[in-house]
Amino acid sequence: MSKARRHFLKKAGLGVLGVSLLSQGPRVHAAGSDVIKVGLVGCGGRGGGAVVQALSTEGPTKLVALADAFENRATSLLPRLKEQFPNDVDPNTQILGDLDGYKHAIDTVGPGGVIILATAPAFRPLHVEYAVNQGVHIFMEKSFGVDAPGVRRILNAGKLALVKNLKIVGGLMSRHNVPLQRAIEQIHAGIIGERITCWAYRMHGPVGLAPRREDESIIAHQIRNYSNFTWLNGSFLLDWLIHNLDVCCWAKGALPVSAQGMGGRQVRTAQDQLYDHYAVEYTFADGTRLVAQGRHQTETWNCFQATIHGATGCAVIGENVRNPQIFKGHNPDATNLLWEFKDKPPKDQYQVEHDVLFDAIRNDKQINETDRCCEATMVGILGRMASETGKVVTWDEAMNSTTELAPGLDTLTMNSPAPVMPDENGNYPIAMPGVTQI
Questions:
Q1: Superfamily per CATH, domain 3-174+350-368
Q2: pLDDT (tens digit, 9 = 90+) per residue, 368-398?
Q3: pLDDT at 76 over 70
Q4: Which of 105, 113, 261, 278 has its CA at 20 to 30 Å from residue 27's CA atom?
């Protein structure tokens, strides 16, 4: 276990598993020749892709349940799945709508099966918690919660999953990208010397907001546009930059101890909560920095990568970088190239993360990515807290926060008032640096 990982678990209040906890529950896994039942919660684009990848792994699988807050998403996905994986789901009994559909889907999968969790990140903690309690293996898409209380729920569920021999893989697909893995190995071996500064970028055009439909509840409108509401996605700094934040911390081999930053709505006028820019400076324990920049504005510079500067060189890596490269000096110029991945193009990283999960289930290998998924999530949450308050926020302050972005999330229905409501003009509260509190 790395020093960074030990630090994270200590600050989260989670020590080594106790004797009483180790005595809980059966050790659940599927035998190598068994059909593994698969269910999907969240039938949007990422969920639809993930279930195809799960059903494309080696060995027999069977899709047994689809659930989504919007039932029509599940019913429209099913025919497309049946073209590749016929006779899997009975649409009369295994298509599940509303916000409690996840329970029925997980129950349908049953112990030893796999549930794919791909809803808005706010719901990830309660879904993971329920699946572990029911003895179900998990693939959970990023992000892994939106606030510290939610992250702590996933950490505790992850501990119980270890006891019950359940396998958990998270959607940090860059961790399963072979070229990136090899680049990180080179960086850790010292090819660019001591790592001094890391840069995480996601800069591109504006994000739209679908209008509220006729007779659609406010909460349904927000869930359908989950990327636009902080209680659902935790901010675009968290949900969209999580991969390159994670890659930078992976390359550095450490987690930040504090952050300060800025952000706001410079040009955005849509009636939602979305900042259109963030800039965060994270500080590591040794005084070195990670700087994250996120922006979605029209007619502006685009950049989507991570850059690592060391004492003697630099690396261009991360999400959206198909061919990671390492250079001598600090100008990433072809004449300075030190290393690049030259082997045969590997299997798609999105497929690999499912291959790893199903292989672990069939061959009873230990895999539980809960900790590193929660680490990456907390880096994003820390940056959001610092930017939206305008304060220097420490890791401990962020990790120990009791603020929930959506109190009572477990009992919400599609007929409930939304956790965040618009004013009489349809405008939503926006975080304000210097005013918003930690």
A1: NAD(P)-binding Rossmann-like Domain (3.40.50.720)
A2: 999 999 999 999 999 999 999 999 999 999 9
A3: yes
A4: 105
